[in-house]
Design a protein that fits this description.
With 535 residues, the protein is mainly β. Among the domains are: 36-111, no CATH class; 329-424; 451-530, no CATH class. Helix content is 10%, strand content 24%. The protein has four helices and 31 strands. The strands form six sheets. It has an 18-stranded mixed sheet, with no helix packed on it. The protein has a four-stranded mixed sheet with strand order 1-5-6-7, with no helix packed on it. Strands 2-3-4 form a three-stranded antiparallel sheet, with no helix packed on it. The longest helix is centred in the last third of the chain and has 24 residues, at 511-534. The N and C termini lie far apart (184 Å). The relative contact order is 0.03.
Amino acid sequence: MTDLSAKLQLPFIQPSQAQKHVTHNEALLKLDGLVQMSVASKDLATPPGAPVDGESYIVPAGATGAWAGQDGNVAIWQNTAWMFYAPSEGWTAWVSDLDTLWSFDGSAWVETAPAETFQNIPMLGVNATADATNRLSVNSPAVLFNNEGTDIQVKLNKNGVADTASFLFQAGWSGRAEIGLTGDDDFHFKASPDGATWYDGLVINKNNGYLSLLGVSGSIPIYNTGGSVFIGESAGANDDLSNNYNTFVGYFTGNANTTGSYNLAAGMNALRFNTTGSNNVAAGADALRFNTTGSNNVAAGVNALYPNTTGSNNVAAGSYALRFNTTGSYNVAAGMNALRFNTTGGYNVAAGMNALRSNTTGGNNVGAGVNAGRYVNAGTDNATSSNSTYIGYDTRASADGNTNETVIGYAARGNGSNTVTLGNSSVTGAFVQVAWTVVSDRRDKEHVGDVPLGLDFVNQLRPAAFRYTEERGGAPSGPVRYGFYAQDVLALENDPVIVDASDPDKLKLNETALIATLTNAVQELSARLAKLEGE
């Protein structure tokens, strides 16, 4: 018979042993420390300064003092001294400062885990009570599912298409939001004000991944096929999705488009009826709405290029710019109502609010400034003039239908086809750094005859000193000037050349023509002088 027991190494009382109580008490002390073992800590590396009898610890690695060299052993304060017991596999101890159960696995102390698997448990409540419907119930501030190595998935499987597999979010046990397969196999995002009435906010189609943003007023389907993106109810609905690279954003934008490509439309009905037109940009409600095959147009603003059908290479920037254009091409309109009434006119440039607003069929015009080229002098519309330039606020043509008329300056009024007008009647001076040089090549002229006017004509001229008035009958302004009155000169001419009387309401004087007349007069005087000197 051995002296110690096999498991706890308790000392046996030997036959004829003296002081048997010593051996017996030693065994009792060991049993008291190891059976139903509870230790204060497993991480304290320094022995406590004033332990009480029976106080126990699992000695951690690297312990110091009286515990040095006792790594992993159980230390018990007994009879004013530390007693150390080497654990055997299977020993179990409750660690008080951790409130966990630890076991010795033969080489180290490890936290005791629950059973590795729970199979076919009818229900489970974690800090909660499970029931027949909620068979897993958890009361917790958070729930964590962590991967074991790499990936992790949470699976919800429903029985049939019409069933539901979803996550339901509640407030006061009343549903407020739900995501998942609710009643079909599309993926739904839903919300509810009361848990009874539900609204779909977003649905992802199971067949193609198309995403629809929904609301009580309609849907906003989003597609991404053929390089195109369509956002808005019925936007791009007829696109053949054959790599057209279109972007349509808004209600019915690009709705009729079939094969038109590289178009961008943003705004209700923008490019709505476009079918095959390409490389267009329409930004604003109804911009390029009726365009069908026109290409390379840019329309920015409400109703910009609204009725355009086949017109191409136009640029309209501003509300109602090129609003009525249908087939006119190569026009540029920048500003609200610029070229608004243009229909078929082409190669026009209008910059400024209402610039060339009234033009309908005129082409090759330039209008720069508010109301530039909008009216004729009489205040009616300038609709058909062509090849003309109007620069400045409220510059006007002399008449509708003029051609090659240039009018420059604030409120300047034109003087007819093939004329250039600089400034208005308020201008008090015209200055250039050098003298005007006029083309006068005889090869560009047809000789009609000699100038019939001379000394007699000059002698009848009436030079006058005057000041201009800002308007007829108004107060004079500006400096005193020397010159002639056109009416006086006209009275001396049988066939007017010096005076331009084409507009009887505004006679004009060609002072350059007076040079030839004065030259004749000087030559006549010179001849008379020579004759007198010869006598």
